[in-house]
Structure formats: structure tokens, C-alpha cells
Amino acid sequence: MDPLRFMLDQSQIPTHWYNVVADMPHPPAPTLGPDNKPVPLEKMAAIFPMALLEQEISSERWIPIPEPVREIYRLWRPTPLIRAKRLEDMLGTPARIYYKNEGVSSAGSHKPNTAVAQAYYNREAGICRLTTETGAGQWGSSIAFAGQMFGIEVRIFMVKVSYLQKPFRRSMMRTWGAEVIASPSTLTQTGRDFLAKDPENPGSLGIAISEAVEEAASRADTNYALGSVLNHVALHQTVIGLEAKKQFELAGDWPDVVFAPCGGGSSFAGAAFPFFADNAAGGHKGKQVRLVAVEPASCPTLTKGTYAYDYGDASGFTPIMKMYTLGHDFMPPGIHAGGLRYHGDSPLVSQLYHEGLIEAIAVPQLATFEAGVMFARAEGIIPAPESNHAIRAAIDEALLCKASGEAKTIFVNLTGHGHFDMAAYDRYFDGELEDHVYAEDAIRTSLQHLPKVG
Amino acid sequence: MDPLRFMLDQSQIPTHWYNVVADMPHPPAPTLGPDNKPVPLEKMAAIFPMALLEQEISSERWIPIPEPVREIYRLWRPTPLIRAKRLEDMLGTPARIYYKNEGVSSAGSHKPNTAVAQAYYNREAGICRLTTETGAGQWGSSIAFAGQMFGIEVRIFMVKVSYLQKPFRRSMMRTWGAEVIASPSTLTQTGRDFLAKDPENPGSLGIAISEAVEEAASRADTNYALGSVLNHVALHQTVIGLEAKKQFELAGDWPDVVFAPCGGGSSFAGAAFPFFADNAAGGHKGKQVRLVAVEPASCPTLTKGTYAYDYGDASGFTPIMKMYTLGHDFMPPGIHAGGLRYHGDSPLVSQLYHEGLIEAIAVPQLATFEAGVMFARAEGIIPAPESNHAIRAAIDEALLCKASGEAKTIFVNLTGHGHFDMAAYDRYFDGELEDHVYAEDAIRTSLQHLPKVG
């Protein structure tokens, strides 16, 4: 029997994160304040610890992972790289499909990779309380877990539609000692304003971010933690790709193409950036690896958005960042991949996409669930709806290989399990899920509200 | 950093199951039919494939694991053995606590170890349909998964109280293509009889077994699969302990005591029997390992039951087996460890207990959830309520070590994760869970209904 699972020893947990900025052809566009000038670090220090802000602007290629962070990583890392042999057989493809199972983490997704680092740096800075937002609940449960690891209190604003769809994600956060609030809430001015306009507002990641930032900015003992988008978050996720590269060496194989779901961009960054390092250096043994961000057709930030300065949140509370955006007040449909319902995208991912160094595709909801069920029936793992986006893309690529006879190697970032998403699977089986039409008009309207720059 | 996780290569998945019968001081008491004579295999062949029946009565020490079964095991096995260092630190104990994480399996528990084997042998026998029962849903989702792996249709009678408490376990079974029926149901005579007596009957494992057996016995294309109790089930689970022994060698350590939850007995058998082999041979390096079955105080089969012949199901449909029992019509309270709500116990476990070769303790529900939350906060994994029983016992042992200063090595069978049990955790946090009083009167009554033998 060929080996199907490629494991690393705990001593092989990366000692450094990889910073893609060192290998980008151009420096990242700066984050700007209301005055259209780069935001000074000191200003951001109201809600972030200095160590994370330094990572945010660093151009060092390698940034050391503190030992206490690696110590917590050891609870689940290194994660396995698994060859999806049964899925290949089911598809009848000559392609080889591998997935990195980030669902084995404590909170069931890749999110703890950065949550643990953020909790650590905040504790080191003497902060004893964090606020954050969560969509599908993957980030919320991750920061709840990470806070528990370092003795930090956590308050989580959870997008209301997910709060209602996923009560057990709340229970999970509670098990790790965090407090969970449905957003929009009455606890912040932002929340009250949105509720005044529409008491039935289902919430969005953008609104929840506004609420969490507003509270963190108003309390000295409290900082804010973001689960995606920012450079330091993308940085922390690179443990995924760094481990995967060692594991592909073990497997005696190497990806032709990497697929990762893309909402705020950090799971894509985590899987893809370490392979980008090789691309930038001329390729792995001279071969360029295709790096493909997979987003929902209903929230098609990279594929249908504009590359422009925009706010990170819905109400214009944050500084503005240059990124692909659908407009900060774009309200995505209530699809079940809550983690991908974000109007913007990581500025690093956006810049690489803008420069043609990575690719992006958008896939419709029903096709992603079909792919997830196929994967579950072949591999025994029920994936998170977010992960189903990457799996869909991988299956499509494998089917192209079947048609062409090419034996490509496909790498999928399986970002999480779907144990808290079974209601969505039920709706899929019951024929109640739909493909949302690409909201061209809504996006055109929201793009008219971009902030003016320069 | 000391290693915390002890992994085996996939080539080290056991090639044989260990059959404890070979090392028991006395042969197992035979299973008897209505005539009080040992049931001929041919009769059992109405609902089980011959290969499993041969395992049921075998006294061979080692039974080969078919390659197609090992092939499926590879989707998640070998499972990790993990040192619970953070839990040790939280308790301040000199004890070393290790757990075998069976929750990494496809269905999230140890149950697929036998489900896969059973589905395989049934397919080899030309069977294309299986019925079974499930309590907490761990077994049901495992057989759904296993059926999917071998192209077998599966119908699952799910104890109604769990069916209602755990809708997402149903969704999981559905994802793997199985059909799930709340038991008692109107599909069988047994179900109709129970509903006639009490339309609100919350169900029990015993009733659900009766329903599944009744249906399997009445259809030629359909066999029955049992998730615990029987000898062949205990046999298949020994991959747990066999792997653990290799992993303890890697760790340079060896358990002084093994704790496993005990409902029908198979997870205990799986973890403990391979260590019993050493005990029977004079001990590991001369040392006997304590083997402790941990059961719920509300369903205390080993600690408060009687060692006698009884039916495996609630309505007297099955042959009778010599085992510890609370009486086949004992209705355990609706505790959240649904997998431990069984009136009887594995005949092999029962006989070893009766002969004083293993130990048993009973723990109350609230204490098990307290232990589970401590474990989640220390180790990042939210355990199944069943597993919390073993964790409770391990914590108590570790606290005894703290008092005595002994540095014992404790091995816990972490049989599953609690992702589908968050409603139970919520009830615990909300103060709504209770400790059921030991139902002395109810047990005394049900014990009066034991079948007459010989």
C-alpha cells in the first residue's frame, strides 16, 4: 500500500513564519487614515499590541515563532497532509489530490494558527481582554480557545445569521470561557445605528468588525483581534504551507496547483504564500506552482470587485486599505460559508492578484456542497462549507485532468471540518439551498461609496 | 520540549486483532437460545455473516485484519497517543496522563474500528443492506460511514431521546447516505408494542436493538450490525490498545492504570484487552496494569448489576448471554452519555470483571462534565460525554497521585469528540443537568425479570 498520510514530527513545527512581503515585486500599499496619510503605528496601538503591528509592516522574510506559541501549536500541529486516493478513484482521474487537514485543530479549522499567536502577543503586552467578530464561528471559537490558553477574557460579536444558524458554535466558545453577542447588537453605537435602520438586519462580518473595533478602541484594558485580512494574520497562517512543503518532499511529489478558499484571504495566504516564495525565486526545480484563491460566486471579491482603497469594516470605522473590494457596505447573501461573506480581501492577496501572480475563481454554492458530499463519501471527512469551495475547484481540475489525461498534482487547503455546519448540509439534501445570482447592481451601488483617496 | 504526541506510521496499523479469549482463565460462557442450549451458528447466520460468527466463538489469540479493512483504517489510523501535559499542569499532579484520541476518526469516535470490519464482512457475504441501532449516534454515524465505504445500504434505529437531542448526528448519517428512524418506531412489531404502552417512550438502546434485529431477521437481503457488547466487536476495537502499546514504547513509558468508558464494553475492551494480555502473561516487565471500566452512576451495570444470563435487547428477542446486567427491561435515565445507557455489558468484560481480573467504577454525570470542561480548557479538545467518564476517573486518579506524591502513568481512552454534544454542554453550563439518583428500586424490579436458565 502506498502511504496516504504524510506526518511530520512535532520537532518539525516551523520555527519561523514566512513573510511574503520579502518576495513581492513591489512593497505593499500603505494603510491610510482619514487624512489619507499612512496611519502611524502609535495610532493602531490603541487596539493592537506593538509586536503584531511590527509584523504588520515588516519586510523581513522570516519571523520567529515564539516558543509559547509553538508549545500550543503542539496540541494539534503538524497537521497531516493526506492523499485523497479514494476521491481520485471516485473521479477516475489520473490527477493526484492531496489535502492538508487543518480541521484537526482544537477549534476545528486553520484559525487557531493566528488566534494563538495573537493571544500570546496581547498577553505579553499586558492586555487581559480581547474583542473580535466572527462569521461562521470558526474564528470566534479559535480566539475563545486561544484566550483560554493564555488567560485572556474574550468577547465575540457573532454575525447574527450565523449566531442563529449555529448555536453549537456558541456553545463551543462558551466551553472555552468566551462571551458571545449577536451582531448587530445594542452594545455599540455601530450596532444601534444598524438596528435603527433595520431591526431585522442579519449582520455581516463588516458590521461585526465595526462593533468589536469600537469597543476595543474605547477601553484601555481591551484590544481587538482580527481573524483574517491583515498582514500579520496571513503571516501566522503560513505554517500551513511551510509544513505542506516538507510533507510534499516526504511524499516525493510537488503541487502543480494550490486551491484554498478565500474570504478575508488568510487561509489562502497560509497555504499559498510559501509556494509563492519558490515561484518568486524561479520556481521549484524550475516549475511555477499555480496558486488559486477560490471564492463564492455570491461574494466574488477578487473576480468581480475593484482594486481600490476601502474600509475594512461596514461602517467606515477602520483605516482604509488597498484591496479588492465589493464596497464596504455591500451586504452578501446569507450563504452557508459564513467565513467567506466579506466585502474585501487581504491587501497582500489583493496586490499579488492585481499583479497577476496568483489566480482567483468563483464557484456557486450548490456546486460546493455537491463537492463536499463527494469528499465526505470518499474520504470520510465532512468539510466546512468554506473548505468545500477549494474542494470544488480541485474536483473540477481533476476532471479536466481526466479529460486531458494529465496527471497533475493538486493541493487543497482543507481549512476545517463541517461538524458545526450540518444544518447547511441538511438544507442541501432537502433541496432548500440556492445559488444566489451575482448581485451586479448591489455591487455597483456599494462601489460608489468607496472612500475618496489622494 | 518533550514530545507530547506519539505517532505511528501507517505501516504500523495492526495486521491482527487481539482475541482476549485466548488468555482468559476460563472459556466464555456460551450464548443460549430459548431452549437454554448454546445457539448454533447457523441460527445466528440469519442476521450475521459467518466470518463474524466465527470470530464470535474463536479462541485464536490473533485474527488477521483483512487488507480492505486496513485500507479504510488508513483514512484516520493510527490515531495519536497524546500526553496531556497541560492537564497535568492544571491539576498540579506528578502523574503522567496520556490519551488515545479516537475522536480523529471519520465519524468522530472509536466506533468505525468495528463498523468498517462489519461492513466489509457483510459485503463479502453478499449482503447489501444492514440495520442497526444507535444511542448517542456515534455508532450510527460509524456504520453509515462504513456502509458508504463498501456500498451497503444502512437503516439506523436511533434512540428517540438522542434523535431529538442530536439532530446533527442524523445529518451526519445522512451525509454518508444512511436512513435514520426514531426508535421506538412504527416500522416493527417491537416498536409498535412499546408505543402502544407509552406513546412518549423516550427509547433505549435495548428497544432499538430489538427493532433492528426484528427487521434484519425478517429480510433475506438484510443483516444486523451491533456496535458493542459482542465478542467480535470487542475484538475489532483492540486496534486501540495494540497501537497504544507501541506508542507507549515510543514514549518510553507504560501505564499503571487504564481508564475507558464502559457502556456495552467495546471501547473498554479495545483499550484494555491488549494490556490484559501482558497481565495474563505475568505482567509487563513483571508489572500488572490496572484495567478500569468507568460507567455512569445512573446506569451502573458492572458495579450494581447482577452477573447472570439476560437478553441483549429490551424485549427478549435476542439469545441470552451471561453478563452483568441491570435487567433487560431496566430503563436508564436520559443522561447525555447516550452510548452508556445500556442495561447489560460485554460478556467478555463481564466475565473478566466477575473473576476479579479487571476493575469498575461508576461516576455521576455532573462530575463527568466538569472533567470534560477542564480537559477542553487544558487540551483544547471537547470530549464526548462518554469519554468524560474516563477523563473524570483519570483526573481523580491524578489528584490521588498529587496527594500521595506518586508519579503514576495514566492511560485514558478518549473515545470521541463532543462536537455533536454541545447541547449537553450548554445544559451543564446553564445548571440544567442533574445527577440521577441510583435507581435501586427500578433495578431490583427489572432484575426480577431475568430469564430462567437451566
UniProtKB/TrEMBL annotation, chains A, B:
Annotated TM spans: none
UniProt pathway annotation: Amino-acid biosynthesis; L-tryptophan biosynthesis; L-tryptophan from chorismate: step 5/5
UniProt source species: Rugosibacter aromaticivorans
Modified residue annotations for N6-(pyridoxal phosphate)lysine: K111
Cofactor(s) listed in the protein's UniProt record: pyridoxal 5'-phosphate
Family: Belongs to the TrpB family.
Name of one Pfam family that matches: PALP
Record-given protein name: Tryptophan synthase beta chain
Listed InterPro entries: Trp_synth_b-like, Trp_synth_beta/beta-like, TrpB-like_PALP, TrpB-like_PALP_sf
E.C. designation(s): 4.2.1.20
Assembly behavior: Tetramer of two alpha and two beta chains.
Record key words, sorted: Amino-acid biosynthesis, Aromatic amino acid biosynthesis, Lyase, Pyridoxal phosphate, Tryptophan biosynthesis
Record Gene3D superfamilies: 3.40.50.1100
Organism placement in taxonomy: Bacteria, Pseudomonadati, Pseudomonadota, Betaproteobacteria, Nitrosomonadales
A single Gene Ontology CC term: cytoplasm
Ranges for domain Tryptophan synthase beta chain-like PALP: 75-416
Enzyme class: lyase
Biological role stated in the UniProt entry: The beta subunit is responsible for the synthesis of L-tryptophan from indole and L-serine.
GO molecular function: L-serine hydro-lyase (adding indole, L-tryptophan-forming) activity; pyridoxal phosphate binding; tryptophan synthase activity
